[in-house]
């Protein structure tokens, strides 16, 4: 099955080979060096020179929960920016830990609204939020939030800015130091060309001051211990050592390509898919100015059933794309990942196969025009 969902994403052969090496002792000097180098290679992706990225063995959600459990006390007031699926879900995680959560809603398909946030935080009771939660790249709506604009509002308040960057790290610029992002969480299986199983966390000085004051809940995800161990190139408990090896190799690949070049390539791949499928009548769900290069969320043309497109792609072509199950977009959109290990030929096949899948439902298309539109964007991308 060709895997084309917005996570988990395929893994390059080099990373698979790294993964398949013999297990090593997690207290050995070899592993220490591996973890140390991995953290050092992660720093530019997070845009930090000062924060030491912490590698946790869990999916992204485990680390999202961990940063909240380490920085919030029951009853703390939290504001979540609800502009899609993940902002609301982030708020539910905080609520599950006893926080008093308020959601600030803005329309799906746009980024989180910085101006509305400014108004909310300057209201008489707006200074009491302990944390503001935001998803960087909403993998359900395909919209990117301008984190610089959001942090511009939050950084001079006492609130922590907590960022879900699960699907954006490695694909979109993130500037922890320059933007003052307090807690940032990502995971291995989206933009980072690795299998699922590792999560990544950075914390600012402001975040650590808060975390040092809050009693940790539970041992496994105690971030103070994780910080102290990470400073010695160690994990608190037995980490997924083979996944760390895989992540190390994937990060070497990113740095061989160069970070800026990686972002440029990502942008072209996203645009190439959008340009091609637009000729098939599949239009972007998010607003064009915030459309993500990491995931294409597409509305089916009039009279075409999105769920049937997913089924045809799977059953006829052996390509797994995603619908939007368990969200309010269920049945109306399809979602395709262009993040991580995605190549121009993947995009060409996507366009060709999607043409077949919409034609099967009686929607007549001109495949040659669609392919030509794709190729124009792909001209800039190396194979
Ligand atoms: C995939 C995703 C998650 C969930 O991560 P898991 O690793 O599945 O726990 C959270 N937030 C965003 C934005 C995602 O894309």
UniProtKB/TrEMBL annotation:
Cofactors required: pyridoxal 5'-phosphate
Domain Aminotransferase class V: from-to ranges: 7-285
GO BP term, example: glycine biosynthetic process, by transamination of glyoxylate
Classification via Pfam families: Aminotran_5
Keywords: Aminotransferase, Pyridoxal phosphate, Transferase
Position of the signal peptide: none
GO molecular function: alanine-glyoxylate transaminase activity; L-serine-pyruvate transaminase activity
Protein residues bound to substrate: 335
PROSITE patterns attached to this UniProt entry: AA_TRANSFER_CLASS_5
N6-(pyridoxal phosphate)lysine carried by residues: 190
Family classification: Belongs to the class-V pyridoxal-phosphate-dependent aminotransferase family.
Protein name, as recorded: Aspartate aminotransferase
């Amino acid at each position: 099955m060709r895997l084309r969902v917005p996570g988990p994403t395929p893994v390059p052969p080099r990373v698979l080979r790294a993964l398949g090496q013999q297990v090593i002792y997690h207290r050995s000097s070899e592993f220490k060096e591996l973890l140390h180098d991995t953290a050092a290679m992660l720093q530019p992706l997070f845009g930090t020179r000062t924060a030491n990225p912490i590698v946790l063995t869990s999916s992204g959600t485990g680390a999202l929960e961990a940063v909240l459990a380490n920085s919030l006390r029951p009853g703390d007031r939290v504001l979540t920016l609800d502009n899609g699926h993940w902002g609301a879900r982030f708020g539910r995680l905080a609520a599950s830990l006893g926080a008093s959560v308020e959601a600030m809603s803005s329309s799906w398909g746009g980024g989180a609204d910085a101006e509305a946030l400014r108004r909310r935080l300057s209201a008489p009771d707006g200074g009491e939020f302990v944390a503001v939660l935001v998803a960087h790249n909403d993998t359900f709506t395909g919209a990117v939030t301008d984190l610089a604009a959001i942090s511009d509002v939050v950084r001079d308040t006492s609130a922590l800015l907590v960022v879900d960057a699960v699907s954006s790290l490695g694909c979109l610029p993130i500037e922890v130091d320059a933007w003052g992002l307090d807690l940032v969480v990502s995971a291995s299986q989206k933009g980072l060309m690795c299998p699922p199983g590792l999560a990544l966390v950075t914390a600012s000085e402001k975040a650590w001051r808060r975390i040092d004051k809050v009693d940790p809940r539970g041992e496994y995800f105690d971030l103070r211990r994780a910080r102290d161990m990470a400073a010695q190139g160690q994990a608190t408990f037995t980490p997924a050592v083979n996944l760390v090896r895989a992540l190390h190799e994937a990060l070497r690949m990113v740095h061989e390509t160069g970070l800026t070049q990686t972002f440029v390539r990502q942008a072209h791949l996203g645009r190439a898919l959008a340009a091609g499928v637009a000729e098939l009548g599949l239009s972007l769900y998010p607003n064009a100015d915030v459309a993500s290069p990491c995931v294409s969320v597409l509305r089916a043309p009039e009279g075409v059933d999105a769920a049937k497109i997913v089924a045809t792609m799977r059953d006829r072509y052996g390509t797994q794309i995603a619908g939007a199950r368990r969200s309010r977009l269920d049945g109306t959109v399809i979602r395709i990942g262009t993040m991580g290990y995605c190549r121009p030929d993947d995009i060409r096949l996507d366009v060709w196969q999607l043409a077949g899948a919409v034609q099967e439902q009686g929607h007549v298309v001109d495949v040659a025009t669609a392919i030509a539109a794709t190729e124009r964007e792909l001209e800039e991308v190396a194979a």
